[in-house]
Amino acid sequence: MKIYFLIENYYNIGGREKILEELANDLAKYCEIIIINIDIDIKKRSLNTDKIKIIDLEIKEKNYIKYWKIIKKLNEILENESSGFIVGVGSWNGMLLPLLKNKKIKKISSEHGSYRGASLKIKLFRKMTYPFLDNIISLTEEDLKKYYKKLNKNSLVISNFIEIQDEADLENKIIVFAGRLEKGKGLEDLIEIWRIVESQNKEWVLKVFGDGELRTEIEEKIKLYNLKNIHLLGFVDDIKDRLKSASLIVLPSYSEGMPMILLEGLSLGIPLISYDCETGPSEIISNEKTGFLVPVGNIQEFSKKIIELIENRELILEMKKNSLETRKKFSKNKIVEKWLEFFNLKNS
Q1: Residues 6+ apart with CB under 8 A from 231
Q2: By the number of CB atoms within 10 A of the CB, which of 25, 64, 134, 208 ranks highest?
Q3: What distance in Å separates the CA atoms of residue 201 and residue 67, rounded to the nearest whole number?
Q4: Element (H, E) at 220
Q5: In the chain, what's the furthest Cα-to-Cα distance?
Q6: 3-class SS at 31?
Q7: What is the pTM of this model?
C-alpha cells in the first residue's frame, strides 16, 4: 500500500514539517510513503529521507493557476493507483483532494491550525469540499466537536506528538518564545509584557527564536523601550536542544492549532504560560498545574504570571513534576499508534 502526503513546502523549518518527517519515517516501516512537495523554494533544513520518496512539483505560481497545476500533476501521479491514501497537510491541500479523478484513493485532510483562525475564504471552501473527503483529522477535540464533525461525520482527532527523552533542569534565568514573527502570534503583546517584566527583574533573559515580517517592527520597539534582556535569535534547527536551557516558555498567540513549542516544553517539564486562545493551549496546559492560561490580550495578567513564576522556585519545580507526568499523553509512541490504526497498518 502507498500513502501520499501533499504539503506546501516540506523543506520549511516549522512544526508541521518536522512532525510530518518523523511520522513519515515511522509509517515507512509498514508501507511505501511518498511526500508530494508543491514548492521546493529553498531547502532550509536537513532532511531524514532514507525511507521515504519525495516528489517535487516545483509549482511557483501564487494565483489560482497554481491549484489547477497541482490538480493536473496529482492526477498524473495517482492515475494508475488502485488503492491507498492521499493526505492533504493543511486546509488548502485538503480542499483540493475531492477534485482528483481517481476514486479508489482515500482522501484525507490533516488540519494544522485552528478552524476559527482561518480566513473566510478558506472556511467557505471547506464547506464546499470537506463533505466529499473520506476523513478529516483534527488536532484538537474542540475543533472536532464544534466544526469538523459538522462538515464530515468521519472526522477524528490525532494530535501532534513529542519525543520523551530528556528533561530540563530549570536552573537558568531564561524564558523562551519560539514561532513565526507574524501577525497573530502576539509579538506586539510580548514586547509590552517583557517591558513590564524587565522593569521589575533585571536578571532574567527572554530569547525569541523565529523570524518573519514583524522582525523589523519588533527590533524598533526593543530600541524604543531600551530593553536590554531580550534577544532575537532567528530560526534554529536545534530548537529542542535550545529549550533545555530554559526555565519558562511563553506563547501570547491569538490563534493556534496544537502548538509544538508548548508540547516540546511540556516534554522537558518546563512551565508554560500562554494566551487561552480557542484551540490548542488548553489541551496542553493544565492551568495552575503545568503552567498558566491567560485571557487573550491581557498583557498585565500575562506579565504578572511570568513574575509569579520567576520569583517562586518551588512553584516552578512543582509544575515540572506535573508536566513530566502529563507529557505521557502526547508521547510519540501513542500518537503514531493512532496513525497506524487509522491506516490499518497495525498488523502489517
Answers
A1: 205, 206, 207, 208
A2: 208
A3: 51
A4: helix 215-224
A5: 66
A6: coil
A7: 0.86
